[in-house]
Design a protein that fits this description.
This protein is of the alpha/beta class. The chain has a single domain (4-232), classed as NAD(P)-binding Rossmann-like Domain (Rossmann fold). It has eight helices and nine strands. The chain has helices spanning 13-24, 36-46, 61-69, 99-127, 147-166, 186-190, 195-202, 210-221; strands at 4-7, 28-33, 51-55, 80-83, 130-134, 173-179, 182-183, 208-209, 231-234. The strands form two sheets. It has a seven-stranded parallel β-sheet, sandwiched between helices. The longest helix has 29 residues, at 99-127. The model has no long low-confidence stretch (mean pLDDT 94).
């Protein structure tokens, strides 16, 4: 099986790994991202017949619609949408958080995802394709400093479930993919470029990789068309569940 997949956030991490995984299997890939030089490098690596690069900011809803409407004929029949692009704000508690940073995350992770999905749904319905939405274990398990990011990922999960209801009878499959710790550029971006913080987070714990998740996404996309994975949660074996916090000796 092969087709055409539209991948948001294809310039690094899970998005770039997925572009390579699908292209290696003969798929055509439309890859979006804000960093033109990375998209051009990926297009050069995979070849113009395999990857169509789209420089796109997920916060620009008008640009999203124009980009989808202007897809070249060779890439116009989209079978699968991988909503991978996402941001996380710094991990300050909400009482200290920067509102503008939070808004950027909401606009990217929620508004942009909805806009891309809405723009592509007519094509995906026509092809009886699939929508793969990258959520997170943060959608289920809370942690200090994660309110906005986790809230957006909970939206992605619920959006996926309800979109599945809307797609009833169309043959379109919808999946919420909810990974735990995967070592990519995610933490470096979240900490403003602090590679040492990223290295410390993943040290000695054997995290998942972008390639691990790309393989999982490829498996979901290429299942027989009568099967739907509603949600899938993945963690490295070295990650599990934390206990509740208890504050002691606090003044009333």
């Amino acid at each position: 099986m092969s087709g055409t997949i539209f991948i948001t956030g294809a310039t690094a991490g899970i998005g770039a790994a997925s572009a390579r995984r699908f292209a290696a299997a003969g798929w055509k890939v439309i890859g979006t991202g804000r960093r033109r030089e990375r998209l051009e490098a990926l297009a050069s690596e995979l070849g113009p017949e395999r990857l169509h690069p789209l420089v796109l900011d997920m916060r620009d809803v008008d640009a999203i619609g124009a980009a989808v409407a202007g897809l070249p004929a060779a890439f116009a029949d989209v079978d699968v949408l991988l909503n991978n692009a996402g941001l996380a704000p710094p991990m300050e508690p909400q009482q200290e958080a920067d509102l503008e940073a939070s808004r950027q995350v909401i606009d990217t992770n929620i508004t942009g995802l909805v806009a891309v999905t809405r723009a592509l749904l007519p094509r995906i319905i026509k092809r009886k394709g699939a929508v793969l939405n990258l959520s997170s274990v943060a959608a289920t398990y809370p942690y200090r400093g994660g309110a906005v990011y986790a809230g957006t990922k909970a939206f992605v999960r619920q959006f996926s479930l309800d979109l599945r209801c809307d797609m009833h009878g169309t043959g379109v499959r919808v999946t919420s993919i909810e990974p735990g710790m995967a070592e990519t550029e995610f933490t470096i971006v979240r900490t403003g470029g602090d590679k040492a913080a990223s290295d410390a987070l993943y040290a000695n714990m054997n995290p998942m990789t972008a390639d691990d998740l790309a393989d999982t996404l490829f498996w979901i996309a290429t299942l027989p068309p009568h099967l739907n994975i509603n949600t899938i949660e993945l963690m490295p074996v070295s990650q599990s569940f934390a206990g509740f916090q208890i504050a002691r000796n606090e003044q009333p």
